[in-house]
Fold Radical SAM protein.
Amino acid sequence: MRSVRSPEFDGVTFHEVHARSVLNKVPAGSGVPFGWTVNPYRGCSHACTYCLEGGTRILLADGRTKALAELKVGEEIYGTRGHGASRRLVPTRVLAHWTTLRDAYRVTLEDGTRLVAGGDHRFLTAKGWKHVTGSKFGAAQRPHLEPGTELIGVGRFEPTPDETLGYRAGYLCGMLRSGGFAAETDAAARALGYLPDFGASVAFLQVPAEPDAHWQRGFLAGVFDLAGGYGRGQLAVAHDEPEIADAFVAALARFGFAHQLDEVPKFPTRQEIRLLGGVGEVLRFLHVSNPAVGWKRSLDGAVIGASRRRVAAIEPLGLQLPLYDITTGTGDFVADGMVSHNCFARNTHTYLDFDAGRDFDTQVVVKINAPQVLAAQLKKPSWRREHVAMGTNTDPYQRAEGRYRLMPGIITALARSGTPLSVLTKGTVLARDLPLLQDVARDVPVSLAVSIALLDDELQHRLEPGTPSPRARLELVRKAREAGLPCSVLVAPVLPYLTDSPEALDALFARLADAGASSVTAFALHLRPGAREWFGRWLAGAYPALVPRYRELYARGSYVRKEYREQLAERVGPLLRRHGLAPQAGFASRGPQLPAAEAAPVEQLRLL
């Protein structure tokens, strides 16, 4: 790997690598309308605020999780002690953490979890430790993962709840009706932080007739903090108020927790609720509810092994990548719910040991031999000339393409093999290749899509420093259409309360129609882990008044609330019809759904 810096790309380092494979199969069930992708770059010199990815989650010693990228030497996490698959969780510390250059492999589990690790990396399985890959010595092969291998751990991690107003009300209700401020200082501190949100009202003390999921998450945490505990492998809550006990049971049922309800002989009015399912369900409860009391979150000594997840596939990525490695006092740690040793990579750009934030913008990996490798792969008899989409991870026409000129060779290789292709970009470097695309379109189906999220130059510069202006991208659409090429536009992402007004959308659609866009698809911002945190920091600095509203809109996960999506769809539809963009266009609530020849990726944050 050679690292290069250039004066015309201030602050950007290009890491030139020789790839072994550039043609990537899209996993079944991904929901995107194409089966293959080519990505000559990793990382992006566009520097978009919302173009980010999160890291592998590591189990901390307080039961919470943290991205591997954010771990520091000295932090306390959970490791294990024991023999074979029989293990107990024990606190340990991160003693060191560094990178190493290895061939990288993707491990996919049957539940959809994906990890990237070196071939020497080991997981704890039902039959002991196994490497990701076998050695090259035939009968002397070391134990290694295969499809169907059972991995030992604590179950899949759940995302912790956002502290929405509903969550806070539920917490206060559960906590104050289970003992109040005197019993636990951690709970009291949290409650004191929540109370100002409600002014002089005490309505939060009432259990709603139909509580929502946010309220129930907070309620579980509040009751557990004051009336619950975990010990000897059991998580239990005891309460004297039937209304509170019933509401607690209802909340458990909502989130799929099996439980048992018992009377307490010494206290006739008291009911005890015990969680069933072992340590995996205890940990899931802690993540779903996020209690405040530290000592009650301790899983020290908990027996693990009952939760087993099967390997679905192990695939080489075709690259040597710098992979994360940490050393702990126990020699292991728990990553994405599995007991693990050494050499983990962060997802997507963090495969490269680059930070998931600024480094995505300033550390760009360039597969300098991508055209040659792709041409060789397309000559294989097994290649069936299926549609290949480009721009599905990072932008193939980012500024780096002006320096490396990889796309002409890639386009030529695809066309010569008879392979249909599509490109999604916000980079005007594409204009350079329009004559080539016009030529190859005589032989294979070719379609283009340009991402244009807004017209406001000032907001665009703050969100997407380093990208061409909206005016330049509109001109790119015009040039593509004049060349006789189909060119769709993705109005993506639509930013709630920033770019979603009828006036802003109407003006944008008018300009798109004037530029000759073949079709238009609009969809709202979605915030996956990692992107959520980084975009949140940007929003807090640029538009702090919007932070509470975004918390409400994205309280349920990566996608905006259904109510907002429906409102936006009602707003977008008439505007598209007004500008003659409706027949082949529409509003996508979760992501773009273009015709197969104009395939665009669902994962908006990684490509725009």
Q: What stands out?
A: Residues 478 and 516 are 6 Å apart (CA to CA). Confidence is low (pLDDT under 50) at residues 49-54, 343-361, 583-608. The domain at 52-154+303-341 is CATH 2.170.16.10 (Endonuclease - Pi-scei; Chain A, domain 1). Residues 562-578 form the longest helix (17 residues).
